[in-house]
Amino acid sequence: MTALVITDFDGLRPRTSEELLPPKVAQVAQNCDLRAGEIRPIRQTVLDWTPTKPGTIQSIHRFAKAYWFHWSADVDVIRGPIAGDTTERTYWTGDGAPKVTDSTIATSGGGTDYPNNAYTLGIPAPTTAPVVALPTSSAVETGAISLITFTRSDGAVYYIPVITSTAHGLAVGDVIEFSSVGGTVELNGNRYTVGGVPTVNTFTLRDVEQLPLTAYTSGGTWKRYYADINSTTYVYTYVTGWLEEGPPSPASIILDVPNGHTVDISGMETGPAGSYNIIAKNIYRTNTSSIGTDFQFVKQVPLATTSTTENIRREALGDPLETIGWEPPPNDLKGLIILPNGVAAGFVGNTLYMSPHNNPHAYPVRYQQPTSFPIVGLGHFSTTIVICTEGVPAIASGYDPESTALEETEDPQACVSKRSIVSMNVGVAYASP
């Protein structure tokens, strides 16, 4: 079998006779691109989608490789910097208050005026402080003794007292103080630690195995003893279905709480008015250590829950609260961009707003940076933000938005068109005078 192999194509020689053409050229070549030395077809344009919203469409965004978000306003759209995101969470400004959507709601509900559904971006702080108190009924603080017997510890000379006290509520490690015990008077006025595995009505003592105790006769009471009492205060935050967390509520009163004591928490709100994806509340309380005082995680409760209790020991508290000072974006935020480090940025008037890393729902006041002139639009290269204004451009540089430094240039090149701004690897280009 004979094969003709042509590995390179040069193009056309329409004036050369067919018989005299070398193998790499042709007299006719239609609908093909030969610039790379190979035959590539030129694709024909095809209608992909027709806008369904009324008015002149000014902004479009391709979503999930299948849908077109579109608006009759100048809208800026970013893809959320969310690790492991499979729902293509998407944020935008310029269409009323800033908004966020994802694939579970953006195209649902019928119609093609995408996006069909969205949430208001940001999480407000609760406006009401929680009410906290030490309940008299939440934990048994004292109890009556009805019987003391003794059980021998394996290999021990002395016996371990087994104390009967109905519904005592004690746990291993609790410290109690005895008084008015008849017979076994050695216990009176002393403190001992609950040991073993208490039952509902009985418990043993850990610190008396080597004490010779006399027989019990009658009576006696015990009282729970607290050596570790903390002055603490509580706050709570709202949490979305995407596990985003908002700023904390006002703090409760300061309460002196024995470590591990039950605290009643009430008066919590059930969510703000508006279209937010809020489903739960996180509760925090202060804890003081050698390095300072922090709000630390206590528990999460459903959004509808207004009252709960907690008795977590201070050494078992969770992570510190990170959202102090976080604020929802202002309703007139616009020009939204996203940096490679996960920081989102927008502006209002002459003020630059920035989000914490990978949290484009929050814009702390301490991250704001003012410029001398009204801002027209934003661009960036790497993690440096170029602020295009009606006067001189400014540059905000720094990896951490809390320590970002803003510097205005001396070049009087105002930005004459927000839509002309183009971010590139080496800088930002825009139309100027």
In short:
The chain is an all-beta fold and 433 residues long.
Description:
- The chain is an all-beta fold.
- Helix content is 0%, strand content 36%.
- A hairpin with a 6-residue loop joins strand 16 and strand 17.
Ordered list of secondary-structure elements with their pairings:
Blueprint lengths: L10 E2 L12 E2 L5 E2 L6 E2 L17 E5 L3 E5 L4 E4 L10 E4 L5 E3 L17 E2 L10 E3 L8 E3 L2 E6 L6 E6 L10 E5 L11 E5 L6 E4 L15 E5 L3 E4 L1 E7 L14 E4 L4 E4 L11 E12 L2 E11 L5 E3 L23 E5 L5 E5 L2 E4 L14 E2 L4 E7 L2 E6 L4 E4 L7 E4 L13 E2 L4 E2 L4
Class from helix and strand fractions: mainly beta
Largest sheet: 7 strands, antiparallel
Query: Which consecutive residue ranges, at least 5 long each, have pLDDT under 50?
Result: none
Provide mean pLDDT, rounded.
91
Oligomeric nature of the chains: single chain
Q: Keywords for this structure?
A:
433 residues, mainly beta, four-stranded antiparallel β-sheet
